[in-house]
Amino acid sequence: MARVLSVLFGVVAYCIFLATFLYLIAFVGDLxxxxxxxxxxxxxxxxxxxxxxxxxxxxxxLQHSMMARSGFKRAWTRIxxxxxxxxxxxxxTSAVLLVMFYFWxxxxxxxxxxxxxxxxxxxxxxxxxxxxxxxxxxxLINHFELFGLQQVYRNFRGSSALEPKFRQPFxxxxxxxxxxxxFLIAFWATPVMTVSHLLFAAGMTxxxxxxxxxxxxxxTTLFGQQYSDYKSRVGMLAPRMGR
Length: 243
Known about the structure:
α5 runs antiparallel to α8 (178-188) and α9 packs across α10. 66% of the residues lie in helices and 3% in strands. The protein is an all-alpha fold. It has a two-stranded antiparallel ribbon.
């Protein structure tokens, strides 16, 4: 029974995250039909909006990084079953993003606006490419393990977890963190950049750079010299020229 419940929990957590991720695309892109986006929503004074939005970005960064650390996982799995640890992480991430969507206070002042149709179309294409890179990168490193489904499925089948292996599939031969690269492209590629969109993009970029430092420390601990050599050959977020 516990195995069945774990599978159900994992599937529900994944579905909630999938819906949240799709809304994130609409939120960042100011897409029509989204009730609240990075640039459209409840009116607020500039100080209130700045303080609220910075705190929301900080909340996401703290949750996302803290729960991903190996030390936190060891402590956390003394409370919850290890098999659903990743699903809980995915679910909490979704909850934090939903809080961000609801409480975000837009600052609609325009920083830049691209009116040329070709240039605007190019930026929209880059926006779409960024999200596509994010999606493809998750599948390259095992989409279903990343979002907790493989763990609950293997537990249901009575299989043990696989040992982590160092791999460099496709994008990972070009940059070490293509998933983050995709996010950065999507966050910055917009024909209309408002102050709140700029704040979001800058805040998330800061978080990504900080998070990579912690993530690479864990990866170096896990894979040792193999990962150190990889770092020396491959760029972090962009290809190294001449390599």
